[in-house]
Amino acid sequence: MSATTAAIPGQGGPEQGALGREGGAAWLTWAPADSWTMTRRELAHWARQPVVVLVNLAFPVMLLLMFTYLVGGGVQGDPTEFLVPGMLALTMAFGLESTMLAVTQDLNKGVIDRFRSLPMVPGAVLVGRSAADMLQSTAALAVMAGVGYAVGWRWHNGAAAALGAVGLLLLLRFAMLWVGIQLAMVAGRPELVSAVQILVWPVGFLSNVFATPATMPGWLGAVVEWNPMSATATAVRELFGNPGGATGSWVAEHAQLLSVLWPVAIIAVFFPLAVRKFARLSR
């Protein structure tokens, strides 16, 4: 179907059709449909590139096994009880490279310009990309939890608390996702994505994923405790009933509250930035 024939009746050409979807009831009608179409587009890429999907799932598993058996000896008690919840949080911050590459490739190959010629709700491309990423992140969590269970990790506070922990992990992922989308559009080219991705590593390792702040120098422990990832890692440890939760400080005692406030604050900053940047790039 051509762009012209796809226009909304009575709107004239494709550009007017796209504008027609921006207003009022038309936007509410077409936004979910357009976003779902873009999500299906991303899922179709998975079917054509299964190796990429498998690598993205295998990498965090490799990290979990490596840190459990090589680094876990430095943790008192069962290392899996401490490390697995932290690694689940770390997985939610890492692995954004595929999303960032997809965004930059669409920008550089003119895909966005082709979408603009269709009667599509602005922003549906980003929503579809983020929805596909969240589906993959959910699958990664399931795989990681299964591997963690296989190596001895258990949760102890029941299904409701465990689902709450999963919700906090996905909230962190959703926040980091919009950071990644914004950085991808700032980078602009796929070859720069790897350089930008390196910025995520300090956030991951300056956290309590692998060690408690009590074992660190005072100033470093304070930095680690205020890391958004530390809040999520501490909160999910509490919800799973694993060790390494609250340590007496105000930040640790209110980890569950901060594990919600930090991602919401990040989304409040980077979501509008990403949408605005995308709108400017698409003009």
Distance between the termini: 24 Å
Helix segment tally: 14
Indicate the overall shape: globular
Cα-atom Rg, whole angstroms? Answer: 21 Å
Q: What value does the average pLDDT take?
A: 79
Estimate the helix proportion, in percent: over 70%
How many strand units? 0
Order of helices and strands: HHHHHHHHHHHHHH
Question: Based on helices, strands and strand pairing, what is the structural class?
Answer: mainly alpha
List the helices and strands and how they pair.
Elements: H1 14-20, H2 24-48, H3 50-71, H4 79-93, H5 97-108, H6 111-116, H7 124-150, H8 158-187, H9 193-197, H10 200-205, H11 218-225, H12 228-240, H13 250-253, H14 255-281
Report on the structure:
- Mean pLDDT is 79; it is low at 1-20.
- This protein has 283 residues and is mainly α.
- It is globular and about 55 Å long.
- The longest helix has 30 residues, at 158-187.
- It has helices at 14-20, 24-48, 50-71, 79-93, 97-108, 111-116, 124-150, 158-187, 193-197, 200-205, 218-225, 228-240, 250-253, 255-281.
Characteristic terms for this protein:
single chain; mainly alpha; 0% strand; disordered N terminus
Write a compact overview of the structure shown.
This protein has 283 residues and is mostly helical. It has helices spanning 14-20, 24-48, 50-71, 79-93, 97-108, 111-116, 124-150, 158-187, 193-197, 200-205, 218-225, 228-240, 250-253, 255-281. The longest helix is centred in the middle third of the chain and has 30 residues, at 158-187.
